[in-house]
Amino acid sequence: MLGLLRGERAQLALKPQPGTADLAELVDHMAEIGLPVELTVEGTARPLPPGVELTVYRVVQEALTNALKHAAPTRAHVGLRYDDQSVRVIVRDAGRTDGSGGADANQSLTVLREALRLAFPDRPLPAATPAAALAPRQRRLVEVLSRSPNPWLIDGQDFGNVAMLVDEYGLPDSREALLAYLARLP
Predict the structure, then answer these.
(1) pTM for this predicted structure
(2) Average pLDDT of 117-135?
């Protein structure tokens, strides 16, 4: 109570929010609790708007926490890539790929559903939409889905719910069909 009367609360409220400059401390903390993390920066680091700084920090924090919690990784990598217009955040982990540990089918579907929702906010695509008409974000997601067998498999078996979810957005409903769809790009 005396702290409030003395204005200590106001001083606490003025503490700066974390940003990219605090990522090294976050990486050190993750190593202390069992997840070794390598941090790399490409391009010329520069100050970002405060909201972007906080967002980058929170995205990395959440990704590393999820990796530690769900992927049972042995190590992780955080990369920041600066260019003239943007900063790209990359977080990768060397988690289990043998079916033990890691996200279950429901978690995988939730992540895929959210990725599709963000990439295709006006879902579904009109029938016979050519791949060339996809927005860049949509094309990147389709490329990832077509090149990686992991989203389509659970414990090494075809997982039909992924095909149904992808089909809901007007996309071809198999990895092979997505590859053929993208092959028609000019």
Answers:
(1) 0.50
(2) 86
